[in-house]
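Obj.: predict assembly geometry.
Materials: sequence records (below).
Method: joint structure prediction, all chains together.
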Amino acid sequence: MTPLRIERLALIGLGLIGGSLSLALKSAGVVGEVVGYSRQLPTRLRAQELGLIDRAVDSVAAAVHGADVVFVATPVQAMAGVFADLAPELSPTALMTDGGSVKGAVVAAAKSALSAAQWAQFVPGHPIAGTEHSGPDAAFATLYHNQRVILTPLPENSPALVARAETMWHTAGAVVERMTVQHHDHVLAATSHLPHLAAFGMVNALARLEERYEVFRYAAGGFRDFTRIASSDPVMWRDICLANRGELLPMLDHYLAELTQLRAWIDAGDAPAIEQQFAEAKAVRDALYRPPAAR
Amino acid sequence: MTPLRIERLALIGLGLIGGSLSLALKSAGVVGEVVGYSRQLPTRLRAQELGLIDRAVDSVAAAVHGADVVFVATPVQAMAGVFADLAPELSPTALMTDGGSVKGAVVAAAKSALSAAQWAQFVPGHPIAGTEHSGPDAAFATLYHNQRVILTPLPENSPALVARAETMWHTAGAVVERMTVQHHDHVLAATSHLPHLAAFGMVNALARLEERYEVFRYAAGGFRDFTRIASSDPVMWRDICLANRGELLPMLDHYLAELTQLRAWIDAGDAPAIEQQFAEAKAVRDALYRPPAAR
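Observations (raw structure tokens):
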């Protein structure tokens, strides 16, 4: 494997995802200069202050100019505009990749904004990492350590370019896998997009109760963990839900059917059926995550 | 406040809740002897081996005989049988209390099994504490430290008896509050019973997908936290759902309506409505839990 060297990294979007990749590559000593752009001036200044970027610029085009790697880490709904803005300045040898949680909509946006040659420079990706915090202050260099990054290469990508994207993520500490765009969006609808929707909905359902203050007072550790992802960035998740609605809505219907079936069993007092469902869920989850050592 | 002294504590149910109370009272040095009963012989032996109890007996009656405090910590559906078994041996001066997560059904079960005088000895309670682990090995002395315990005293309880229950929980490190049985069951349906149902349902919905192994492979930290409570004890939660179905089912309907509304907005592409919902949920949750210090 050729060791990674990036002369100039262009970072579009200076939050948790972009900022953490920059910090990881900087701490690995493989990047010359990081040039960053975010729509908001205070975000740009803060990112520079925190050392996520070496230089802040005031347009996408200025960030991309002369960069050999371009990483787009904005909310997915903003990416169409970013691709249109960067197209005139994208170096013909640059690798372009992204961190969007949805791949189908992002790939479609790139296709309509880029030339055929530029399109072949785009290796779509999705780091399966994050916390419920967002913005430049949330970034840290080890976010991707041992986390999965999914690349969904396009048929038009050269093997060398895909390998470069892979090496970049390895350098950041990640485990890289490849799958198709369609498969990615289906799997993530199940394990990430639906749970976020369910958590946002749960907090709101309870917040709508007349006695909401009283109710939340008695929320314990289980509720805190269950709703952690409802503290995630609303704009990012609005975008994901809309961009992946084709996969998300059938998955939500599947979940609603499950809850409706449980409702019927509880209403009917069908103790064996309920216990079996709960036992199956516990067995699946216990197998998925090794429990911490007993205290 | 009179310092607490318990000559003989009878523990019915030797899992996380009962075992942890015993360990807490033992480590505070306020209890003479702990006599324990569980339906399963291996559980009794293990509880003794772990020091949760000083002596294991093979019937509820034998455990309660001569005890000045009786703590019932079985799954709630088993409590009717426990109350019937203990009635003949309950000392007329003993305090009886429980750790059931539902209070209405437990109070009704106690009422039908006990004499009027014994009924007045029962101070129903619910420690809002626990982990997703269960059984004697899960018990630890500090489980209740700074956790809330809700007592739902009956009109028939003497103030002295309620005070004794309160002192016992204070001694275990808990913060004690009082509310009515009905209010307890409503509040807990919202913050605990519904989230558990939603988490069990989520794991099962995903487990039913054809590509379940593939799907779970990409589950990240958000999913792990969201589904932690789906690793809870199936029998305990079956009982809670059935015992509190009067409060749980309307709460579930309220949640289903919330998800159905979100579904409609996503389907219609109503970005402002979705963003507002997510932002409200985030604001409510952030206010509820102070975020950990940024890394």
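Conclusions so far: Residues 18 and 173 of chain B are 15 Å apart (CA to CA).
To do: check interface contacts against the pulldown list.
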